[in-house]
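EI: anyone free to look at a 331-residue chain?
SC: sure, send it
EI:
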Amino acid sequence: MRFTKTVLAAALVAASPFAVAGTAQAQMRALSDPVVPHPDPESLFTSDDPVLHRNKQAALHIQRNLLKCNEWSRAGEWLTDAYIQHNPLAASGLEGVIYYFVEVAQRQPLDPCPALSPEDPNGVVAVQAEGDYVTILTRRIIPYADDPTQTYTTTWFDTWRFVDGKADEHWDPATLPTTTPTQALDVNTLLQESKDRAEIEDLMWRYVRAADNLDADAYVAVFTEDGSFNDVSGRQALHDMITGMEASMAPRRESGELTGNMHHIMSNQSIEFLSPNVARVHYYWQTIFGGPGVDPAPRVAAVGNGVDEVVKVDGEWLIRSRNVQPSRDEE
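SC: here you go
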């Protein structure tokens, strides 16, 4: 029913004067060499000229103590009260920038504060200083829109104008976020996502049925060749896991210790598309023994939540990883 409603909605969009024809094109891949940070970034913040040296050292503190280590309680040491912004996402003023990083972004200070490193995601590439201005070039690691598990690198810059050793004005290449009509109203994309959701829901149904019946062949068929269940990886290992469960449960059933059918229940399921061919499935799960009926009474053996990664391989959705004990960061 949900798929039918989505198709109907998409058809209505298609009939509207705002519909945009055509399918989204796959994102191209970067042709450039990767951006490589300097092996000793802090050595770039020095100069024989005393004024340039003072400004470059202040820029170093901004890059290290503020942007890396989040010591925003010290921001007044290196930023003026005016701190004029030209980033369209940020307001001017020292108080405003502190409020953003502390209250909105909730950046936590690092203690101790480590030196800048070429391993930093925004590793420093080069530093230029002239007059009152210092520019820092840094690496940016960008995920591809059609597959966020893959990335490329490009170059970011920050330029500051210094007054008496403090940054008084700032520029960078940031822009406001945009949403294109094609992305919002592409009917073919809406229809494909609805179809993919239905196929992923069917995949998870086939998974729980195979698990309930301890059908090792059907179980491994819903995984990729290198698919995993927690720490068990590969179809052969997964097959052995299910046959091992069947063997271990048999004597317990014969003795009467284990009774009733096994049911794996997945609920509150949410599908998160990372790209056209990669999705995450978030859910709560329960393993229940007992039924049908009330004799024996159903017994909850285990509960939890899970995060699965599913991928489309040759047009078929399969489980790449099933994680029923995710950390807080993975949920």
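EI: DSSP finds seven helices and eleven strands in the chain.
SC: 👍
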